[in-house]
Every structure is written in structure tokens, then in C-alpha cells.
Specification:
This protein is of the alpha/beta class. It folds into 2 domains: 2-120 and 320-349, NAD(P)-binding Rossmann-like Domain (Rossmann fold, 3-Layer(aba) Sandwich), CATH 3.40.50; 122-312, 3-Layer(aba) Sandwich (Rossmann fold). 35% of the residues lie in helices and 14% in strands. It has a 7-stranded parallel sheet, with helices on both faces. A 5-stranded parallel sheet has the order 2-1-3-4-5. Helix 10 links the parallel strand 10 (247-251) and strand 11. Helix 1 packs across helix 12 (321-338) and helix 4 (122-138) crosses helix 6. The chain starts with a strand and ends in a 17-residue tail after the last helix. The mean pLDDT is 94. Bound molecules: 1,4-dihydronicotinamide adenine dinucleotide.
Length: 355
Amino acid sequence: MKVAFFSAKPYEEIVFKAAATSLEKALSLEGTEREDGLPPTFSPISFTYFPHQLTAETALLCQGYDGVCVFVNDELNAKTLYILHEAGIKHIALRCAGFNNVDIATANELSISVSRVPAYSPETVAEHTLALILTLNRKTHKAYNRVKEGNFELGGLLGFTLHNKTVGVIGTGRIGQAVIRILKGFGCNILCYDPYPNKQLKQEGVVYTSLESLFSQSHIVTLHCPLTEQSYHLINEASIALMPKGAMLINTSRGGLIDDKSVINALKNGHLGYVGLDVYERESELFFSDHSQDIIQDDVFQRLLTFPNVLVTGHQGFFTKEALSEIAAITLDNLCFIAGDTRRNVQDNMVKHIS
Ligand code: NAI
């Protein structure tokens, strides 16, 4: 199976090549027979790494490939999918959990299957969520610079004690649950909202409530739900108005969950006290590339960066050695399954269209 790997970064090539070597070794240990009788040391998947983002323009590179392997900011809208279909692409392997960047209905219509990596070390993203909360609160990023310059003044670094604070967790899937486990260790009170409450969490005493009550009682609101039609701009003028003055908002899920203009207004009038973002609605034009020599044209993004109480990271919640290795191994399993290796038990990683 020939796969065109888009938005490839050097660190991903290293990890995917290592995962492919492990897979070859495993297949060879399993004694997989080849029909042509050659030694079973072949890799059923071959990748060509393209640094480009997949868009309707770059989709033309896919001629002669069977599948594409893509990441969060590749654009698989209807236009791109039709070009992929014409080029002969039969499978899209997402190397991430979210699939909001793929027009699933059109993929379905064109019989292009889609797989994803639904769970890879949810603790990785949860730990980054805590990094944002703790950095915003205790201002270690500012303290680092001050101390380096010989300034040991504490003014402006005043934080709050996390113990006993109420944290509202929106979305209690894998990452939300990992966040809850960590926050419990800090002695926080947890309030949750999820249209499908988790029975186990309820048994453990975690309280589910309505969105309105979560917003109005939480010192910190953290988002761990997917971006869907229902969750688009979940954080808007009305929801922010319900939050207590000085509340902290954290988003490590998807940028489209937040209406940035409402967030900017709330930062300007002091209603929001802290904002930590690992994702941004128009991040595909900025993130994962070096724009340090460019004049950034996104004025909303630039305005966000001017606030002293806003911390933005460039979609790095997933970025640990452990998570990257898991992503590579699971993506290869998904592709082997698509290539016909029925021993891979990965049916749940296939994305189905729900009308
Ligand atoms: P999951 O599928 O395990 O859990 C999502 C939860 O959200 C489910 O319990 C679901 O019922 C709930 N949900 C669905 N619609 C909702 C709504 N409108 N309001 C509240 N809850 C809703 O997903 P997981 O693995 O926990 O990931 C959560 C999100 O984190 C992903 O959708 C993805 O966008 C993001 N993510 C970000 C990463 C990063 O590097 N920053 C890395 C991986 C995932």
C-alpha cells in the first residue's frame, strides 16, 4: 500500500520509520508467509513524506498512491476529496484523534474510508492542560525571564492556590477523565458537563451538571470535547458572561470551540482573568511552521498575544515521545487493517459517517 504522508515533519519521519521497522520485525517473527515465497521481511506500507499541507492544490501529488496520511490542519473538504478520489485514493489515515477537518459525508459518498487514532496517551494532553493552568497561575514563564536578568522582584507574580478551587471540565472522554484524575490530586472540586455522562466517574462521586451551572460555578473552565456543529463557539459572549469575574479558560481541544472575539472583549473588560490556548480557530495558517520572519496578518491572533494573562502554545498538547510513538504504531495498524491484515483489531478506529 503506497501512502502519501502530508504535513510531514522531520521528527515524525524518524518515529514513523522506527514504527515501520518494528512492524517489519514483528511480521517476520510472526512468520508471515509471502505469496511469492520471499522472506517475510517486507513492509506492507510504504510512505512518501511530503512537507506540504494537504489542500485542494497539493492533492494533485497523490496520483499513484493508495492512501494519504494526514494531520490536524490538512484540509480534506469536498473539493480536496474529489481530487483524491480521481487520483485513486481509497483511504485517509488521520494521525490524530479529531476528524473535524475531513468532510466525512463526502468521503463516504466517494467510498474513501477514514481511520484515526482515537486514543493515544490521553495523559499527554491532560498534562499539557495542567502546564497551561499552572503557568498562567504561577507565572513561571515570567519568573524565568526575570530571574535570568537578575530581577527577583515578586510584584506581578501573585498566583492563587489551586487546592479547593472548582474546575469545570467540558467533555469527559479520555482526555477529560485524565484531567479530572490529575485535578483530584491537587484537591480541586470538579464539575462536569457531557451529553453522555460517564457512569464510572459518577460512581466515583464526580458531579455532572448543566452547562449553565458549570459556567457559573467554575473558577477554571477547561474544554475536552470534540468540535462539532453543537459545540462550535460553545464559548461565546453569553457563556463567558455566566463565568465568575476573573475566571480562567483553557482550550486544548479545537480552536472552533471558542469565539475569539468574545474572549478578547472579556479580556479587555477584565471579566476573564486568564486564558490558555493550545489551539486556535485559524491555526492552520500559522501553527507547525516558523513565521518568526513574517508579518502575521491575523489581527485577532496578534491581539490575543498582547494580553499579559494569555498563554498560547502552538498545538503541542500531543507532543511527547511516548504519544508520537503510539500515534505511529496505531496509524500503521490502521493501514495494515485497510491493506487486508484482518489480525489487526482496529475496527473502532474507522470513522463512520453519522447522518
Ligand atoms: P473522546 O472522544 O474520548 O471524548 C470526547 C468527549 O466529549 C465524549 O465523552 C463526548 O461525549 C463529549 N462531547 C461530545 N460533544 C460534546 C459537547 N457538545 N459538549 C460536551 N461534551 C461533548 O475524545 P478525547 O480523546 O478525550 O479528546 C478530546 C478532544 O481533544 C478531541 O476531540 C481533540 O479535538 C482534542 N485533542 C487535542 C490534542 C492536542 O494536541 N491539543 C490532542 C488530542 C486530542
